[in-house]
Design a protein that fits this description.
four-stranded parallel β-sheet, single chain, 4 helices, 8 strands, 35% helix, Rossmann fold, alpha/beta
């Protein structure tokens, strides 16, 4: 198992980036958002400074378990979601749900193009 995990949004990006980085990296896609505010409630706790309450999106439970498992086996975790509002929200959700093991490091990686040069530079 690789000691470097890269988390992206898109399976197509995951495949391309994995090819560029090689076998020392495992690239996994979230396939979009993994959590959201509940639709049936306000989504914030007004008694606790309007703290948001997030729920895992239906159908994403197995993916979240897989990502957590990969994180537990990785020394370096790179969150490489898109550098936009949605990508930042997904990155924050990932950071909130994973549990880093002692000695592991979490990085936020940004790139504006999916080319070998851009990926290598960002990493």
């Amino acid at each position: 198992m690789s000691t470097n995990l890269v988390i992206v949004e898109s399976p197509a990006k995951a495949k391309t980036i994995n090819k560029y980085l090689g076998r020392n990296y495992k690239v996994e896609a979230t396939i979009g958002h993994i959590r959201n505010l509940p639709k049936t409630k306000l989504g914030v706790d007004i008694e606790d400074n309007f703290k948001p309450t997030y729920l895992n999106i239906r159908g994403k439970g197995d993916l979240i378990k897989k990502i957590k498992s990969l994180v537990s086996k990785s020394k370096n975790i790179f969150i490489a979601t898109d550098p936009d509002r949605e990508g930042e929200a997904i990155a924050q959700d990932i950071a909130d749900v994973i549990k880093l093991k002692e000695g592991s490091k979490l990085y936020r990686v940004l790139f504006n193009e999916i080319t070998k040069a851009a990926i290598k530079k960002a990493m």
